[in-house]
Amino acid sequence: MCAGCFIHLLADARLKEEQATCPNCRCEISKSLCCRNLAVEKAVSELPSECGFCMQQFPRSLLERHQKEECQDRVTQCKYKRIGCPWQGPYHELTVHEAECTHPTKTGNELMEILDEMDQTRKKEMQLYNSIFSLLSFEKIGYTGKWLAPRR
């Protein structure tokens, strides 16, 4: 089992307040009980995997680098995103877009309006994030009659 799947199993079991078990043999697993099998890891890293952008096959060990740095079809953003350009598209179209992008030619007032909108959006997102985080910070929430109260 790869490290990502292992961590996912442990996290899922913790959320369900259960003991994590192997999906294959159902024996208990934990960080302290597991050991790495380097031969299996090496074999798995050589298995072919498909790039989600260009659909080409690569060894699993090379896929992440290809998707982040090399794939011409990976989704990328305009370098003027920080001043409000919303463009997203395949990497191979980036140079054409940036040559035609209107954001670098905007006036200071236009840019200030865009930045103010971006600040307002960020403020709303942070308020939402803080609300969700405060709700998730309760360890357990139970329903007792008319009131919601932390379970003890």
Automatic annotation (TrEMBL):
One of its GO terms (cellular component) is nucleus. A zinc finger (TRAF-type) spans 27-85. It comes from the Eukaryota. Residues 27-85 form the TRAF-type domain. The keyword Zinc applies. The keyword Zinc applies. InterPro entries: ZFTRAF1, Znf_RING/FYVE/PHD, Znf_TRAF. Keywords: Metal-binding, Zinc, Zinc-finger. GO terms for molecular function: zinc ion binding. Gene3D superfamilies: Zinc/RING finger domain, C3HC4 (zinc finger). This is CYHR1 protein. It comes from Oceanites oceanicus.
